[in-house]
């Protein structure tokens, strides 16, 4: 489980991402993970989780995927892309990452479902891209 001390304020997360607090409020309304306040203290944002959420959201928009996705699915999409390029990524690392998301109230099953859904989507999307490329190459060869 992640220590709550790893969470920063709205102002700090805005500064980290070089945006203003209005943008952070808008992102929060769009589903960006946020740890609710307790006992009068301000809530917080985890820089890593925010980065994965934003990255997943951006990647999905870039590829034109306009189907509704949860915050957890956006995080998992970015995490899957990231872990493919990370030579130090391991099953244990991924398990710890998944456990860290439980601080927001996600169950292990929620996390697993989101990871599996986005892994399936990613595999399907890559297959579609490869079929499209092969088709385009075949068309180019036929024209010559």
From TrEMBL:
InterPro entries: DNA-bd_dom_put_sf, WH-like_DNA-bd_sf
Protein name as it appears in the record: Uncharacterized protein
